[in-house]
Amino acid sequence: MTVRGLGRVATLLVMLGAAASATMAMSSSASSGSSAHPAAGAVPSRGYDLFQLHCATCHGADGRGTHQGPSIVDAGAAAVDFQLSTGRMPLDAPTSAPVRKPPAFSKPDRDAITEYVASLGNGPPIPDVDTKHANVSNGQQLFSSNCAPCHSAAGSGGALGRGITAPSLMKATPVQVVEAMRTGPGPMPVFGPDTLTPAQANDIARYVEYLHDPTDAGGLSLGRIGPIPEGFVAWLVGLGALLLLCRWIGARE
Ligand code: HEC
Ligand code: HEC
């Protein structure tokens, strides 16, 4: 994209932001007092009501998206649970970056919204994650080749360029780790069950859990390889990240 192209995108985003605050102000005054009418085929429920109040301005009353947010009809329970439990959604404005924050809703409310959105289409369910029987060293290998290029070997995250940052994984729960893999939030690629089986996903989730506390008994020793090979590995991994990013940017344009 050219510099002028980027400038136009920025102007557009600013305009969208203004439009969003205006519509949000309108919809909040409209929703107080008037009763919500369920769309044809929709079952009125707490999830439906919360969705109309907090999500519909950007994702549309039917979840099919607006100019302010994508369609989430086929996002699936995994994506909704991930976005709500990591506090990414609801966004304050369509131009805000989705970042991890304390969740805006209680667990029962998140579950209600998730159930409602999942009922709109076909998407991945919330994964069953079992880290108790997982293989941490297998997880380490899978993590180095699939995740470390962006999230770094220690899972502490890193800048990918073009204003994109792969966040730290230090707060991600095992379920959130597998949800992220299955749904590919934002610029992250999707790792479906054909790429990483449920058992391999468990191993990766276990390894991320281990990274949260590497002194954890039953962990694996990273001390066996010295600083030079580690530096070399980091170099290779960095190269891998660049390649992945180039492919991703190429595919988007
Ligand atoms: C091409 C770079 C890239 C790769 C490869 C990648 N991720 Fe991500 N990941 C991201 C970005 C960017 C985000 C932030 C997305 C957002 O907030 O919308 C993210 C977000 C996450 C999150 C959410 C963290 C939190 O606590 O909020 C988890 C968990 C995660 N990734 C796990 C993984 C795992 C596990 C793998 C390997 C199987 C992986 N990622 C591979 C770029 C990547
Ligand atoms: C101010 C606008 C806005 C509001 C309000 C909002 N969203 Fe979003 N949502 C977005 C945008 C923009 C994205 C795309 C973000 C990105 O780049 O990843 C998104 C992404 C998502 C995704 C990921 C889609 C995918 O395919 O993985 C889900 C799921 C989602 N939103 C659910 C919700 C839910 C549920 C609510 C209400 C609790 C909500 N959003 C409120 C703007 C909004």
Characteristic key phrases:
253 residues; mainly alpha; Cytochrome Bc1 Complex, Chain D, domain 2; two-stranded antiparallel ribbon; single chain
Secondary-structure map with pairings?
Elements (H helix, E strand, L loop, with lengths): L2 H29 L14 H9 L1 H4 L16 H10 L21 H12 L17 H11 L1 H4 L6 E4 L2 E3 L7 H10 L14 H15 L14 H26 L1
Antiparallel strand pairs: 1-2
Bound molecules: heme C (HEC) (2 copies).
Descriptive account of the structure:
With 253 residues, the chain is mainly α. The chain has helices spanning 3-31, 46-54, 56-59, 76-85, 107-118, 136-146, 148-151, 174-183, 198-212, 227-252; strands at 158-161, 164-166. The chain folds into two domains: 42-126, Cytochrome Bc1 Complex, Chain D, domain 2 (Orthogonal Bundle), CATH 1.10.760.10; 136-252, Cytochrome Bc1 Complex, Chain D, domain 2 (Orthogonal Bundle), CATH 1.10.760. The chain has ten helices and two strands. The chain has a two-stranded antiparallel ribbon with strand order 1-2. The protein is globular, with a radius of gyration of 20 Å. The protein binds heme C (2 copies). One heme C (HEC) binds next to helix 7, strand 2, helix 8 and helix 10. Residues 20, 54-55, 57-59, 68-70, 72, 75, 79-80, 83-84, 89-91, 93-94, 98, 113, 117, 183, 185-186 line the site of one heme C.
What's the quick description here?
By secondary structure, the chain is mainly alpha-helical. The chain has helices at 3-31, 46-54, 56-59, 76-85, 107-118, 136-146, 148-151, 174-183, 198-212, 227-252, and strands at residues 158-161, 164-166.
